[in-house]
Amino acid sequence: MVSSCRIVIAVLEQIVEESMLRDTLFPMNILREISDKTLGLSDFEILGKHYELRKSARAILRKPDGTIAIQYLQNHFLHKLPGGGVDPGESIQDALAREIKEEVGCDCSLSHSLGVVIEYREKQSLLHISECFVADVVGDIGESSLEQAEIDEGMITLWISPESAIRKMKADTPNTYQGPFITARELAFLEAYSADSTVV
Known about the structure:
Layout: H1 4-21, E1 30-35, E2 52-62, E3 68-73, E4 78-80, E5 83-85, H2 92-103, E6 107-121, E7 126-138, H3 148-152, E8 155-160, H4 162-171, H5 179-194
Parallel strand pairs: 1-6, 2-7
Antiparallel strand pairs: 2-5, 3-4, 3-8, 6-7
Helix pairs in contact: 4-5
């Protein structure tokens, strides 16, 4: 069985290769590593543990007025960025376009990658690697096509400023184990976006 360290290296090499193929404006960089220990959920990190791998794509999805899409999970007291998991055989950018169409109801144009966040979720034995892109809405915004699990979470889309999104996420009180991981991940992406000198 491949160790978690070798899995991380292999996946990051794949992400770097995809970034080069799509002519990303900036080289891919790791924004943050999140674990039970960094979140204060455990006093130590378990080294050498085998994790299930999940790769996903997220977006800072912008309207022309500068507001961005935030998904509010009403039943989990949590805000997150649009996006989701990459299916087998699917590229990161194709997965993101599909997820945005389903969750927000619109097409999008990808600008560039902000970077990667790595999560080690001990209780779920999950290694979650997420890449976030800056994207712009293309065309009209229609109806979303949420999955039943998303409907059960009470997911709705809000269009707010990046500053408001950061404030809301910092005030969130998620009621699930994965909630604090999601909040820390999304804040890392939003803070990178706020510091991005190329953002118009």
